[in-house]
Amino acid sequence: MKESRVWMVASLVLTCAVAAFALSQVYAVTRPKIDYQRKVKAVQEALAAVMPAAASFHEQEPGEMWFALDAQGNRIGTVLKAAKQGYAGPVPVTVGIGLDGRIVAVRVASASEGLKETPGLGLKATEPSFLSGFVGKTAPEVRLTRDGGAIDAITGATITSRAVADGVSEAMERHLEEPAP
Amino acid sequence: MSQPESRIRILTSGIIKENPTLVLMIGLCPTLATTMSARDGLGMAAAAGFVLIGSNLVVSAARRLVPDAVRIPIFIIIISTFVTIIDYVMQAYQPSLYKVLGVFVPLIVVNCIILGRAEAFAYRRGVLDSLLDAVGKTLGFALVLFVMGALRELIGSGTFFGRPVLPSTYRAAPMLFMLFPPGAFFLIGILKALVNKSGIGK
Amino acid sequence: MDWPLVIKSVIGLSSLGLILGIMLLVAWLKLTVKVDEREQAARAALPGVNCGACGYPGCDGYAAAVVAGKAPPNRCAPGGPQVAARLGQIMGQEVASSDPQVAVLICRGGKAESGQRFQYRGATDCRQAALLLGGPKACIYGCVGLGHCVLVCPFKAITIGDNGLPLVDPKKCTGCGKCVQECPKSVLKLIPRTKLVFLACASHDKGKAVKDVCKVGCIGCGLCVKNCPTGALRLEANLPVMDFGKCIDCGICVHKCPTKSFVDRASGRPKASINPRCNGCGECIKACRFKAIEGEPGQQHRVLADKCVGCGQCVPVCKPRAIDLIGALGHRAA
Amino acid sequence: MNPAKIFLGAFLVNNILLMRFIGLCPFFGVSSSVSTSVGMSAAVLFVMLLAAWVSWLLYHLLLVPFGLVFLRTAVFILVIAALVQFVEMFLKRYARALYSALGIYLPLITTNCAILGVTFLNIDYKFSLLQATIFALGTAAGFALAIVLFAAIRERLDDAPITPALRGYPIAFIGASLVSLAFLGFSALFGIN
């Protein structure tokens, strides 16, 4: 029986079946934990993008505000999230603000994270050339130049630029309401 | 077959006399790549050990059923099952270690030790013997990985299991050479020379 | 239990297994080309990992090499000693039928016995040295002594003695023949393990030509051929060639050889002794080539221990079977 | 990642043998002579390309749509084993000359970590099919460069007067360490890490 031709193929198929069954179980058990970890990692990366100097983040308001901490654990800034209505949909913005109240960096959610702005125009809001305009600004300056602020909008995508600027300024206002540590 | 070795000898021979990495010279890829620190080395050895023990048991248990002509593909399936199990379990519960070991965890499936022992030993011996052989080889593997990991970590970053050991003056500018691939080649060359000198595995 | 996932996974992998199984079946049926069963046995002994650590292209390549005698049986890394033993057994069976072999050096011209023709400074390797005018050694047939055999011996059985000549440790030597193959001077030879006496010289020169270059070289005088009781030796190109079938290891040639070119691997030789049953017929005196027996006719004879070499020629001629050989044979490094 | 960077990255900077440590088993076994190394590299290039394509297609057209990503390891190694077996049979019958040149190395490749390593890296780096092909080419070239370079060194090592303890593997490792040190320099050269 051991060397019969049928058993030769059957044994292979049977082993595959058993292996597949075992693997599907393992996958079912471990998938939720892996997805959770992947989500946590994505969030951490987003925060780190706007606050490179931070070693870890303490979640102050879930999904809204984090305190950026350095290696020793003392606070070096805050990170806030806000979203204003843009041309085609909400424009989620992440803002990193230093202790001095000045903007460290701004990041706009990329297309793969659900940004619906028109490619080539609105989507340019995610590029550093536009976002670098926010760096170092304090709350009152975060307005488009035509609205009396210091941020020059992307030509042809004023609505998206304003959405970003408004989002950033809303985040900064909320930051001011918070009692400083 | 040479006279049936006593059970204890199967176990102990795997550690020194027939040490998979330094004497039989197989399974070099993970030995060099994942030994940046003692913790990673042991983590890799644990992962490979789990797969080796698991596959040796299953192969030995099913050895009467497996037709000779297709024994290699069946061994490969058994081994890749255990590898995928450790792959996903580690991704879920030990993400930091998984990030370090990276592609070497799935690469265990082509690790010459495992397929080699499955074919040369487990397929021909009883379950208990195979278990002992697997445990022996794993301990041997772990020993070398630990030594390599500890040495590279000590020289390369002056710490042991992450805790600083050497004075901070050294740790400020450690011999990074050890953490890079050339250091790994060099270290295993020295270790193999010591093994040759001491005449183990003659 | 996430049933759709399980079903998808089982069907997916099993179908792959099925395709693979059918492919292997087709291959197995079509490709059963007849392979020398020894190679099949060797191939079955190998783990089939095809990891290449033995230096041969995969297990099939290595099995073919071992069976062809080109590869020693212990190069399979994953298989370790178990596979080496099994391969040795498979190959051993072949060799065992013709008596397990051991390698011996057929040259006794070390530093003390044979000088140098020129100062050789170069790679310490006999093959390299041999290319240069046949090597630095006075005798161009002799062993250069630079240890190439030491290097190639997979069992580390050969070490260079203090006399500059390789010493083969019979315990470690498995008779794989690697050294015999690799020696540029071909002064290493495989002889049956049980063989005690052999000629240790490869020089085809005669008389004075040999004496000039080596104190222990065979000068082709033929004394051994004349004295060999079983006619196992014959002279060919100034060198006695031994027919192992006929030779009874009596050791007479060793003692008769004027230049001590023969080697006796026995560590000890027995001594003859005559017991009272001796009727003094004197046959043994005629048989003994070393005049080691004396006695008056009709009186009990005596053996002179210092002269007796224990060749045992006197034993068969003694009608009353009054002569015994006392003492044991032993092996020592050739 | 533009194609040149992928190729140079795989070929020199992250050489699969000397920097990533993948595929070392045959590296020390087969590299005893230059001719065997060349034969091995040709076979590796041939199979690595095939394996990269087959595994990429399988992954993106079958495994991902059906959500069977966890079968990746099992499927890839089985497919590569089958691929090698099939290629060996195909060559044996239709291309005798090619078979004698590189056919004998084919069984060696199924368990070669380099081939499987490339298939996994293609997936982890989320390469497109074209990028995956370039990566496979670069890696195979890197494999060839490393193994032939090293074989030349080892041939010289055979006859060099080396202390007994270092002879064989130890000196081969230390040689590899120096060659790998040279490759370390490449990372700064092209600025790819």
Automatic annotation (TrEMBL), chain A:
Localization, UniProt: Cell membrane
Cofactor(s) the record lists: FMN
Signal sequence annotation: 1-22
GO molecular function: electron transfer activity; FMN binding
Modified residue annotations for FMN phosphoryl threonine: T158
One Pfam family it belongs to: FMN_bind
One GO term of the biological process aspect: electron transport chain
GO cellular component: plasma membrane
Keyword line: Cell membrane, Electron transport, Flavoprotein, FMN, Membrane, Phosphoprotein, Signal, Translocase, Transmembrane, Transmembrane helix, Transport
Membrane topology, from the record: Single-pass membrane protein
Top-tier EC class: translocase
Enzyme nomenclature, EC number: 7.-.-.-
SMART domains, alphabetized: FMN_bind
FMN-binding domain boundaries: 86-175
PANTHER family assigned: ION-TRANSLOCATING OXIDOREDUCTASE COMPLEX SUBUNIT G
Subunit: The complex is composed of six subunits: RnfA, RnfB, RnfC, RnfD, RnfE and RnfG.
Function: Part of a membrane-bound complex that couples electron transfer with translocation of ions across the membrane.
Family membership: Belongs to the RnfG family.
The protein's name in its UniProt record: Ion-translocating oxidoreductase complex subunit G
Organism whose genome encodes this protein: candidate division WOR-3 bacterium
UniProt gene name: rnfG
Automatic annotation (TrEMBL), chain B:
Its membrane topology: Multi-pass membrane protein
InterPro entries: NqrDE/RnfAE (IPR003667), RnfE (IPR010968)
Keywords from the named record: Cell membrane, Electron transport, Membrane, Translocase, Transmembrane, Transmembrane helix, Transport
Entry's EC annotation: 7.-.-.-
Residue spans crossing the bilayer: 21-38, 44-62, 69-90, 96-118, 130-152, 172-195
GO cellular component, one term: plasma membrane
BP terms from Gene Ontology: electron transport chain
The keyword Transmembrane belongs to this UniProt entry's keyword annotation: yes
Subcellular locations according to the entry: Cell membrane; Endomembrane system
Pfam family, one: Rnf-Nqr
Self-association state and partner proteins as the record states: The complex is composed of six subunits: RnfA, RnfB, RnfC, RnfD, RnfE and RnfG.
Family statement drawn from the similarity comment of this UniProt entry: Belongs to the NqrDE/RnfAE family.
Function: Part of a membrane-bound complex that couples electron transfer with translocation of ions across the membrane.
Protein known as: Ion-translocating oxidoreductase complex subunit E
TrEMBL record, chain C:
Family per similarity comment: Belongs to the 4Fe4S bacterial-type ferredoxin family. RnfB subfamily.
Ranges where the 4Fe-4S domain occurs: 34-93
Top-level division of the source organism's lineage: Bacteria
GO molecular function: 4 iron, 4 sulfur cluster binding; electron transfer activity; metal ion binding
Entry's Gene Ontology BP terms: electron transport chain
Enzyme Commission identifier(s): 7.-.-.-
Entry function: Part of a membrane-bound complex that couples electron transfer with translocation of ions across the membrane.
Region of interest called Hydrophobic, as start-end residue ranges on this chain: 1-28
Name listed for the protein in its UniProt record: Ion-translocating oxidoreductase complex subunit B
Transmembrane segments: 6-29
Automatic annotation (TrEMBL), chain D:
Compartments, record wording: Cell membrane; Endomembrane system
Subunit structure of this chain's protein: The complex is composed of six subunits: RnfA, RnfB, RnfC, RnfD, RnfE and RnfG.
Function: Part of a membrane-bound complex that couples electron transfer with translocation of ions across the membrane.
Pfam family, one: Rnf-Nqr
Family classification: Belongs to the NqrDE/RnfAE family.
Classification via InterPro entries: Ion_transpt_RnfA/RsxA, NqrDE/RnfAE, NqrDE/RnfAE_oxidrdctase
Keywords of the record: Cell membrane, Electron transport, Membrane, Translocase, Transmembrane, Transmembrane helix, Transport
Entry annotated with the keyword Transmembrane helix: yes
UniProt KW Signal keyword: no
Lipid bilayer topology: Multi-pass membrane protein
EC numbers, comma separated: 7.-.-.-
The name this protein goes by in its record: Ion-translocating oxidoreductase complex subunit A
Listed transmembrane segments: 6-30, 42-63, 69-91, 98-123, 129-151, 171-192
GO biological process, one term: electron transport chain
GO cellular component assignments: endomembrane system; plasma membrane
Listed HAMAP family: RsxA_RnfA
